[in-house]
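Fold this sequence, please.
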Amino acid sequence: MPETPAEESAEIPAAFNGSPASAKRAADGVAAIAGMLSQMPQALAAVLQQVQLQTRQHVCAQCLLARIAWEAAHKAELEAAFAAAGAAFGLEAGDPRAAQLDPAPHLPASLRPGGPQGLPPLTAAITTVGGTEFCSGCVPNRPGKQKLLIAQGALTPSALAGLG
């Protein structure tokens, strides 16, 4: 055992250098950490109640492909609609912020959503089949091709805390 503090090795943790005071401090620290760990689920639930969480929504692969094909087929009309949307908001031609606006009201009536050649919707994916994500309308091999009924609801922080 070292005779003076100067002889203590820096490589030996304080709890194991033979000093009762060092061992007590280490034990107190471990007890404090253990006490905090038991409070983690409640603390996490409290944080989740105060923070708005956003998750990235996946879209149906078939709906996305239909939208991409539609955009390619109607590129000129779509570019004109974005330019008109930008002008309606007072943006100069070529302003990149125009791409964040909704072009639908500025499309010809036949190309608007719901029109005969309307803009296809981007539908949220609900399942994965063979590695491809599908919405309830595009799930392959459905009997009778009926729409699937999908229950939806919010996950509350208390429900999330109960999962752990």
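Helices lie at 20-38, 40-50, 61-73, 75-88, 157-163. The first strand starts at residue 127 and ends at 129.
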